[in-house]
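Ticket #4471: structure output looks truncated?

Reporter: J.K.
Steps to reproduce: submitted the chain below (196 residues) through the standard prediction queue, then opened the result file.
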Amino acid sequence: MTDIKWPGAAFTVGPLCMTGYGLIRLTDDVHGPGLAWSLSHLVLLAGVLAFVPVFLELRRMVARGRGAAGRRFAAAGAALGLLGVAAVTAQAVIDLVVGFLCEDRGAMNDLFDSVRSHPGVTPVVYTVGPLLFYVALVLLVTWRAASRRTGAWRPVAIVAGVAVTAVSLDLLPLGGLLFLLALAPLGGSPRAASAG
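Returned output as attached by the reporter:
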């Protein structure tokens, strides 16, 4: 029987869930409410939460053997990532609740407007907060590449995944696959992670 460790598996599970969220989202023409809306956001929530051990493990990888400055950088990067996880988690939970409470897209839009009308909600939950997730991912993977501990192509794949997602949410499946390409091997053995 194969002994699968959760932190390592999260490097695959997180990106796969993001890909799944994007694929399910494409089946929902009106983008909620309904089964596709709820299922896609549950998959998104699972994927985002899977990035908690990813950021913690990246922190460990980046800090290893790099002295006090490396440890501080790794801790700061992981903290940014976890703040991003919290923001995207809040967004997914809000989306799920709104989807459950509303009967049509018009009612959802009204409720979303009401939620966003509260001071601080838009930057914390919808704009700046989620951006921290991506910034931290790019920083931590780039640091590993700059330290020659992983292939230089990995941060390029992460940036490409972020870019295609920013272009259109319909490209989320591609973004998730690019994250998978860059991250999944990092969750394997130390030798595999440093080999490419």
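Triage note (M.O.): checked the attachment and the full token line is present. Residues 189-196 have pLDDT under 50 and may be disordered.
Status: closed, working as intended.
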